[in-house]
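Feature request disguised as a bug: please show the residue count (388) next to L-alanine-DL-glutamate epimerase in the output. Example input:
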Amino acid sequence: MKIVDIKEIAIPLKSSLRNSVFDFSEMTTSVVAVISDVIRNGKPLIGYAFNSTGRYACGAQMRSRLIPRILSANPDDLLDASGSNFDPAKIFARMMLREKPGGHSERSVPIGTIEVAVWDLVAKVADKPLYVVLAERFNQGKIPTKVPCYVGGGWYAPGKGIPELKDEISRRKDEGYTVMKVKVGGAPLAEDLARLDAAIEVMGSPQSIAVDANAAWQRESALTYAKALAPYGLRWLEEPTDPLDYALLSELSGFYEAPIATGENLFSTQDIRNLIQFGGLRSDRDIIQIDVPQSYGITQFSRTLDMMAERNWQRSQVFPHGGNLMTLAIVAGFGLGGCEAYPDVFGAFAGFADDSIVTEGSINLSDRPGIGFEGQNNLFSLMQTITN
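Example output, currently without the count:
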């Protein structure tokens, strides 16, 4: 049993959307295929993944050093103790060979993307959905049938005013979502508050609305917005500061009583440890939003969860960034707080399986082996172009 090849291709997202900091007009993502010599139904088993959204394609690092390290290893050294499946932890360690400490995002995204594809392959070898494999290994075998899911929406877009925003939120509510996220910080405060009021009007409660500043604010703006938003009692306020400005984050958490969410732009266990230790976050309400494929992958994520548990953080406070099938499997398998959704936002990379159903704010899980990309026809067609 061995990995015979690993292929990568960069694909543009082709989106005109923007948040408060940047637009996605040039955004790309890396799609990865990890090809094995395990034959099932006459075809080799292949693990797939992509590097989520918000970080550009990272194939250069993969091709120059990460893929060669895996393919040059003794195949038996990459298998689990039984020799009957691949060992993601060993493959992760192989990719980290000769890597200098720190500087995480340069390698955490390409390593994490390959590592998640390996997990897809591992679950396919086991002939189980990935969330089942993860639940068996990391969550005492607790296998859910559905998970909470909210919409990461409310984007700024050309020609999109309050009527269009209300129409978007109304559609998502009709589709079964009960929590909606709206962008803030990319318009004047008065306009953002009008957008927020409109969103609450449609959803019916401030607890059904989260807002996301995408780390746009410096101290003065952050304090002004936080004071204006505090009376609403929103579901959460996301990324109100630069990801590494722990002092300002701690200052905000000192008076902003509703939950604060952050962490999608931190890429290592040490980063999250520093966030918890110095950012003033409160384990009884605040939310951590690690993007797992961008943060070294599932193996390291399990270690981050262990570190958080030692500091009295519950898994229910973890809502990973990224509305895709990879994140859905991770949320279900580890028993996390919930999953994000990007319906109709990032082309083929948006959404879940074609037969997914959202009911009362929760999404169903399929029984397809692996991550289940095979059930997302448009995306899987793109993925197959790597190996066809």
